[in-house]
Amino acid sequence: MRHVRDVVPKLAALALILLSTAGASAEAVTADDTARFLAGMQPSANSPLVPLTRDPAWQRHARFFDNAFAELERRQLSRIHAWADANLAAPKPTMFYMFSGPDFIYADAFYAKATTYVLGALEPTGPVPDVTRLPAGDVGPALYYVEQSLSSILSFSFFITKKMKVDLQGDISGTLPILYVFLARTGKTIRDVQLISLDASGGVHGAAENAGPNAVRGALITFAGPDGADRKLYYVSADLSNASARASGFLKFCSSLAPGNSLLKSASYLMHAGNFTLVRDWLLANSATIIQDDSGIPLANFDARKWRLFPFGRYEGPIAEFPGRYQDNYAALFERAQPLDFGIGYRWRTHESNLLLSVRVAADDTGPLETSTEALPPPAPSPRQKPPRPAPFRPPPPMPFWFWR
C-alpha cells in the first residue's frame, strides 16, 4: 500500500493550482460539487473545483473510485436492490440504521424508496468539508484519506470501528466526507447541509444554538434522487448504550419519525448484552420491518405473536472476534432459509452470509403468512450440551491491484 508521504512529492502541480484558486469564495463551492470532487466525479462546469480535476492525483483518485464502485455495484449493490424489490412490499418513508457509522450506501441499497434516513453511531460528524481551505499540497493526501476511510466497507461491506478512529482524522475529517462520497456515487444531488444538535427532548437545533448539557450533534443533509424529490439524511453522533441513550434525546427524535424500517448490520452483538437493551427495545417497538444479520437483535427477543421471520442465506455463527454469541435458535431457523446471492456483515463472503427479514404483524392480521417461518425460539440447550463450533473466520483474499495499490 502506498504511504501518504509517497504521494505528496507528486503534488507540486496541484499546489500551484490550489494557489490559483485560493481566492475562490467558499460560498461559490456547493456541497454537491464538493461531494462529486471527493467521490472522483466531475463537479459542475462552473465550479472553482474544476481546475483541481486536471491534476494527475485527482485523476488517479477518480479512476480508483470508478473501479471500486463499479465492482461494488456488480458484486453487491445491484443484488441487494433486486432482493429488496422482491421482498419489501410496502416500505415506510423513514428508515433507521443504528450502529451504522457513515454507511449510507447500504441504507440506500436496502431502502432506496425511503424519503428520510436516520443513521446513529459513535463516529463524529466533523466539519462541513471545504476543499478550498486545504493548505497547498494537501488535496492529494486528503483524497488518499478518503480512500483509506472507505477501504473496509468497499471490501467487506462494513466499517472497522477501531480503524475508523484513526481514519476519521486529518484536514478532511469526520463522517461527512464519507457521506458525501456515498451520496454522489449513488446518483444523489446534495441540496443543503446543516450541522445540527438534538436536545434532551429530541428537538432539533442549529449547531450554534445551545441545545442543553445532554445534546448530541450531527448533520442534516437534504438531497434529491433521480426523481428530483427532496429527501433527508440525518446522521447523529450518539452513544446508544443505555445510560447515554436515556439521557440524550436521540431516540425521542427518532420516535417523532416512527414507525419506520430498520437495518442492523455488523453491529458487534452489542444488543446481545445488557447495556444496549433500551435501543433494542426501541427498535422492536418502532420498526415495521427489521433487516439484520445475526449481530443485531437476538432472535429470542422477537415475539413470535408480533413478528413474521424470513431467513435468507446461511448461518455459520459469529466470527472468532465475538465468542459466546452463537444462537442455537438462529441455527434452527436458518435450516429452512432461502438462498442469498450476495455477502453481507462479518461473514461477508457470498454463500456464507445470513440475513433475517422480520416483518411486524399488523394488529388485524390474525392469520399466518404463507411464506412465514412462524418459528418460536427453541428451548435453550441443557448445560452439558455444547453448540456447534462456528466456522473459523478466514482472512480476506488479496484485493485487486487497483484497490490497495
Describe the structure.
It is built from 14 helices and ten strands. The chain is α/β, with parallel strands linked by helices and 405 residues long. It has two domains: 4-257, no CATH class; 290-389, no CATH class. It has a ten-stranded mixed β-sheet with strand order 4-3-5-6-2-1-7-8-10-9, sandwiched between helices. Helix 4 runs parallel beside helix 6. The radius of gyration is 22 Å and the shape is globular.
Write the layout of secondary structure elements.
Elements: H1 4-7, H2 12-21, H3 31-38, H4 56-87, E1 94-98, H5 104-110, E2 116-121, H6 139-149, H7 151-156, H8 161-167, H9 176-185, E3 189-198, E4 204-206, E5 216-224, E6 230-237, H10 242-247, H11 250-255, E7 260-264, H12 277-286, E8 287-292, E9 307-313, H13 328-333, E10 354-360, H14 401-404
Parallel strand pairs: 1-2, 1-7, 2-6, 7-8
Antiparallel strand pairs: 3-4, 3-5, 5-6, 8-10, 9-10
* Largest β-sheet summary: 10 strands, mixed
Mean residue pLDDT: 82
Percent of residues in helices: 25-40%
The domain count comes to 2
Span between N and C termini? 5 Å
Instruction: Give the structural class.
Output: alpha/beta
- Count of strand segments: 10
Poorly predicted sequence stretches spanning 5 or more consecutive residues: 1-27, 160-168, 366-405
Brief rundown of the structure:
The chain is an alpha/beta fold.
Supply database-style keywords.
2 domains; 405 residues; single chain; 14 helices; 31% helix
